[in-house]
């Protein structure tokens, strides 16, 4: 399935290099540290195979020059060739899940849930190409994307990382994204890493890192399916998932990692753990190391305790609790990817073709993101065809998400949990800024100011409401803490649970200030256009009732003008829900099949006047 990895010449190069490697050098290749926890000297001394910048791990100034300085330093350390160290190029990895989202000035695309609503494979391919070029500009060669989760519960804090609740669209997207990220490789492509293997979107009650209590048939048909498409497209790295399957953690699941992925699916690339993923296999880290390696993980993402991992694994090999054959298999897979991707023939990051390229954050890239915003928007309501608006209308723009680029980008943007500001971005446009650029009579007001206005001052109001940024378990919705006890009691190993975002999917309960703002404007008799910024479908019955039009904007990213394009009829709506929209919030399975407020595939259009 990965033709590059099967080339005889590459296998011969790997065998020749491995014949020269010591045990320490092999274990080093299996180790990935975080840049804040290791130095370039550590890379050379311990022969580290990879370094990552985790979400929010930003160099000083957070610009292309500072990124290139960092990636150069680690690369050069890895390429020292002397009596103690073999020159083996380092893999530098980042989470680039909606553009190069760590780097200020990058083009930030809608999160996956919005791209699922767009239902456009050509668009997704072009997004992957832009992401590739902007990542390469900073000297990075490995991205932890795409996320192929098939989210089944909108209470999950990572729901926005999923394209759809069914696998068919994700299957199509997977191959397009892999091809777009890889490009030609050999210095002009980045290595994709599909994640998270497997079943992370199926956990009970949508609990992040929880237990997927599902049959093999459901796991295979729904959650493994997108990986088959990705592997056929040439995916060379796979990230293991934090979740468990029927009580057994994926990071220690030999059947899923080795028997299914490597043997049944003929995956010849390498598996990387998620961050500290083996830490939760058991209470003893020493035992967790052996369990993870023997289960089939090849490289270990360990931001802080990477040196302890190296020491423990060395001891396991000496004692025979981890066979040397498993070490050799892991290292061979890692080196196969490094040779096949052209890393051995690539210069240091700052000397590569795309380094500090002028296209980074440029208009041609932002135009793709703006198009993605337009195509991702779903029009849920348009009473009396109030949309599109006239540009000369007296428009009141308000709501906490109207002029906040951080909020419209969501989690995994600049920082792990996102940011709440405009000054963290360069070249980006808020929703308000997009409206103001084309509507001369539009005004932006805070909620307190809205109380003093009269209906005679405004023809219409655009109210931008919704969620604050969040990532992973911090975005979970849990209406009962007993769910944690119930879910955790079935899992073998430790359960890592974050404080949730809230206890209800009802927007009125999560953010009562939004409903009060809508009510205050509605009571004045001003028609409302409501724009919802969210990483999932929410209970919006009351807000919907008081609106004349309602738009699900998801987490649109850095190009707020995409909203104004649609509000004023420059383009028609084409987004369709890739998730059904619920009427009620419930964790009870018997209510899960209740008729939705809007079915999957729903989305209105209007006649452009």
UniProtKB/TrEMBL annotation:
Superkingdom: Bacteria
An annotated Gene Ontology molecular function: beta-glucosidase activity
Any GO BP: glucan catabolic process
Domain Glycoside hydrolase family 3 C-terminal per the UniProt entry, residue ranges: 377-606
Domain Glycoside hydrolase family 3 N-terminal as annotated: residue spans: 22-335
Keywords associated with the record: Hydrolase
Keyword flag Hydrolase: yes
Cross-referenced InterPro entries: Cellulose_Degrad_GH3, GH, Glyco_hydro_3_C, Glyco_hydro_3_C_sf, Glyco_hydro_3_N, Glyco_hydro_3_N_sf
Name of the protein in question: Glycoside hydrolase family 3 protein
Protein source organism: Colwellia hornerae
């Amino acid at each position: 399935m990965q033709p590059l990895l099967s080339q005889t010449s590459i296998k011969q190069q790997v065998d020749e290099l491995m014949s020269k490697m010591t045990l320490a050098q092999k274990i080093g290749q299996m180790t990935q540290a975080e840049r804040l926890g290791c130095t370039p000297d550590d890379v050379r001394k311990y022969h580290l195979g990879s370094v990552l910048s985790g979400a929010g791990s930003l160099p000083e100034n957070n610009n292309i020059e500072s990124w290139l300085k960092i990636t150069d330093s680690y690369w050069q350390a890895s390429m020292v060739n002397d009596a103690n160290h073999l020159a083996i190029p380092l893999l530098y990895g980042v989470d680039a899940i909606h553009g190069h989202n760590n780097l200020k000035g990058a083009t930030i695309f809608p999160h996956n849930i919005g791209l699922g609503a767009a239902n456009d494979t050509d668009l997704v391919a072009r997004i992957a190409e832009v992401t590739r070029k902007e990542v390469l500009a900073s000297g990075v060669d490995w991205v932890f994307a795409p996320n192929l989760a098939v989210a089944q519960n909108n209470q999950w804090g990572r729901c926005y990382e999923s394209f759809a609740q069914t696998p068919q669209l994700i299957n199509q997207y997977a191959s397009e994204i892999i091809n777009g990220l890889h490009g030609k490789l050999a210095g002009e492509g980045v290595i994709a890493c599909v994640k998270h293997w497997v079943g992370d979107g199926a956990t009970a009650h949508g609990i992040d890192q929880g237990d997927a209590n599902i049959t093999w048939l459901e796991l295979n048909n729904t959650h493994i399916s997108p990986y088959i498409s990705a592997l056929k497209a040439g995916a060379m790295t796979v990230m293991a998932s934090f979740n468990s399957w029927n009580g057994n953690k994926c990071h220690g699941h030999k059947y899923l990692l080795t028997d299914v992925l490597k043997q049944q699916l003929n995956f010849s690339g390498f598996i990387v753990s998620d961050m500290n993923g083996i830490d939760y296999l058991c209470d003893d880290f020493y035992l967790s190391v052996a369990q993870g390696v023997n289960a089939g993980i090849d490289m270990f993402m360990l931001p802080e305790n990477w040196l302890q991992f190296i020491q423990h694994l060395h001891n396991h090999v000496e004692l025979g609790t981890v066979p040397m054959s498993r070490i050799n298999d892991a290292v061979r897979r890692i080196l196969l990817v490094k040779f096949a991707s052209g890393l051995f023939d690539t210069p240091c990051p700052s000397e590569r073709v795309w380094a500090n390229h002028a296209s980074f954050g440029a208009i041609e890239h932002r135009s793709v993101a703006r198009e993605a915003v337009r195509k991702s928007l779903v029009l849920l309501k348009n009473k009396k065809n109030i949309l599109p608006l006239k540009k000369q209308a007296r428009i009141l723009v308000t709501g906490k998400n109207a002029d906040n680029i951080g909020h419209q980008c969501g989690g995994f943007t600049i920082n792990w949990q996102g940011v709440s500001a405009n000054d963290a971005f360069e070249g980006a446009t808020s929703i308000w800024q997009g409206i103001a650029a084309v509507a001369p009579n539009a005004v932006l007001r805070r909620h307190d100011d809205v109380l003093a206005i009269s209906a005679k001052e405004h023809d219409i109001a655009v109210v931008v409401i919704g969620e604050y940024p969040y990532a992973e378990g911090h975005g979970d919705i849990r209406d009962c803490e007993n769910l944690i006890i119930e879910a955790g009691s079935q899992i073998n190993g430790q359960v890592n649970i974050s404080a949730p975002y809230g206890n209800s999917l009802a927007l009125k309960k999560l953010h009562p200030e939004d409903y009060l703002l809508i009510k205050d404007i509605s009571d004045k008799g001003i028609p409302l256009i409501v724009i919802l910024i969210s990483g999932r479908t929410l209970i919006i019955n009351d807000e919907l009732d008081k609106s004349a039009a309602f738009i699900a904007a998801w987490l649109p990213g850095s190009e707020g003008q995409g909203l104004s394009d649609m509000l004023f009829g420059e383009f028609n709506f084409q987004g369709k829900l890739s998730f059904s929209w619920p009427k009620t919030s419930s964790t009870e399975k018997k209510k899960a099949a209740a008729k939705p407020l809007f079915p999957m595939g729903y989305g209105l259009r209007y006649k452009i006047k």
